[in-house]
Amino acid sequence: LFLIKIINYLVFLIKIHKHSEVISCPEVRAYTSRKIKTRVSDTICSPLMIGIIRPTLLLPKTNITPEQLHNVLAHEMTHLKRNDILYKWFVSIIKCVHWFNPVIYFVARQIDIECEISCDEKATRFMNYKEKKAYADTVLMLAIARGKKLPLCTCMADGKKILKKRILSLAKKHKRGKI
After folding, report:
1. Least reliable range by pLDDT among 28-42, 57-71, 135-149, 152-166
2. How far apart are CA 69 and CA 28, in angstroms?
């Protein structure tokens, strides 16, 4: 099962490298000091981050406004800083080991949902209401164009139920802790 996941991931990587082009995105430097390769592809519908050792930001080949790019980068760089791709790999390994247990599939889905919600909260923690609304609009715009689920990557838009939870979470006023 793990071998099948690895093969699917490698096929996905080959497809992405074949059908994408490297672009310069100097805006990434405002979010992280790590060297991030940025690619644009017409085979994806939503921005996503792949790679653990050599992270790559994949952007869809659509017109993204500077404000939407800011929201996408805030979200995806939060995933990168928190090593969420490692969590996805870990959950995938656990699912392979415990493939027979239906609870694992439920737990893995919940981890995906909570990972996205907490990433949204961290990415928007210093935003005012207007900026949070623009962030939510960006998530909705990307969700409309959302394609199929991609293997072992972080993706900004995913499913109606998750989307509803994410938007409701963004709408809530969270008290900031001292940390």
Report:
1. 152-166
2. 10
Q: How many angstroms separate the CA atoms of 40 and 91, rounded?
A: 28
Contact 136, 156 (CB under 8 A): no
109 vs 82: CA distance, rounded Å: 18
**Residue 88: both structure tokens together:** 């996805």
Look at the block and give the residue holding tokens 């994410």: 166
Q: Kind and range of the H or E element at 41? A: strand 37-41
Ramachandran area for residue 152 (φ above 0: left; ψ -120 to 50: alpha; else beta): left
Please list the alpha-helical segments (H only) found in 64-128: 66-81, 84-97, 102-123
Other CB atoms within 10 Å distance of the CB of residue 146: 17
Sheet with 154-155, strands from edge to edge, namely: 20-23, 37-41, 56-60, 48-50, 154-155
Residues 103-112 as b/e (b if ≥16 CB within 10 A, e otherwise) read: ebeeebeebb
pLDDT value of residue 146: 56
Q: Which two tokens stand for residue 102?
A: 């239906």
Dump pLDDT digits (tens) for 77-90: 999 999 999 989 99
* Residue owning tokens 């990434």: 28
Backbone φ, ψ for residue 175 (5° rounding) = -80, 135
Q: Following CA atoms 98, 100, 103, 107 in sequence, which dihedral angle do they give, to the nearest 10 degrees?
A: 40
